[in-house]
Design a protein that fits this description.
The structure is a homodimer of 174-residue chains. Chain A has 174 residues and is an alpha/beta fold. Chain A has a single domain, classed as 3-Layer(aba) Sandwich (Alpha/beta knot), CATH 3.40.1280.10. The first copy, chain A, contains six helices and eight strands, in the order βαβαβαβαβαβαββ. In chain A, α4 links the parallel β4 and β5. In chain A, α1 runs parallel beside α2 and α1 packs parallel to α6. The radius of gyration of chain A is 16 Å and the shape is globular. Chains A and B meet through α1, β4, α4, β6 and α6 of A and α1, β4, α4, β6 and α6 of B.
């Protein structure tokens, strides 16, 4: 199973704050190690760190990341770069191969991404060729690459934990 | 494979427009039949109908839906109601059973949902007990219930279609 880190690019502070926070929280919940944010947005960083503090695990988030250098360094250190785009190859055709990678940087763009990104990535991968959401695309990608094992993951050090329940809300505080 | 329709509740016009549009587009791309919106928001309806017009398929969207009546009528007509919530039972424990249902209404709430919803649904289902995003939760739920077959789905009548490609953007206009 690869280790997966997200690189979020094209984030516009304020306008994209909520969607980028959802990208980060989905990444954390579905087993990614952390997120690099190629923008200056302490609001997103704070929201995500608050969730980690309360709900456990060691997901990291760092903002003000120069995206090209991040991709270059990831590749130079032997990691694989996957750009998530509706124009890419079908995930169902590449997922077996990607599951063999050791470390994957998943680049998640906002509405427009620089054209050169397609050439900088090792793979351009689509979750359907339909317009939907980077949040849903990332969720399906992570779930496929982790073969649904991420759903059983524990988040050590949590102050609060949900107890799965057929009806109502049950939580445990520690 | 069940027929799946989304019921979006708790939508606050303006504030939730982008997230609800992402919910609708993810639902469409990942094989749902349509979305009922329990709010008055013609902006969301227009965005989604524009995508259907251009990208094909027959996904429907209707707003101003009274949510309780929608749930009651769905159940009275023999359908199954699944409420997506981080407090629910683990999807991995219920997905085999849910795949046997004929018609599922998936209720997707915004930040707060009325407490009585837990009792009105046949199932309360969680995609991890962690806080993330209704968009990522819905994506994983649909992908699991359709057993990834939705990724091969065609959208008839499209004016534009992506040609999956290892590098760059290729589309076909019709």
């Amino acid at each position: 199973m690869p280790e997966i880190v997200i690189l979020r690019i094209g984030h516009r502070p304020l306008r994209d704050q909520r969607v980028t926070t959802h990208v980060g929280l989905a990444a954390r919940a579905l087993g990614a190690r952390g997120m690099f944010l190629a923008a200056d947005d302490s609001g997103v960083v704070r929201s995500i760190r608050d969730v980690v503090e309360r709900w456990g695990g060691d997901f990291f988030i760092e903002d003000k990341i120069p995206w090209k250098r991040c991709i270059r360094e990831w590749r130079e250190s032997g990691g694989t770069v996957v750009h998530l785009t509706m124009y890419g190859e079908r995930i169902q055709d590449r997922e077996d191969e990607l599951r063999e990678a050791e470390r994957i940087l998943v680049v998640v763009g906002a509405e427009k991404v620089p054209g050169e990104l397609y050439g900088l990535a090792d793979y351009n991968i689509a979750v359907t060729g339909q317009p939907h959401s980077e949040i849903s695309s990332l969720a399906v990608l992570l779930d496929h690459l982790f073969a649904a094992t991420e759903l059983d993951r524990e988040f050590p050090g949590a102050h609060v934990r949900v107890i799965p329940s057929a009806m109502g809300k049950q939580t445990e505080e520690r």
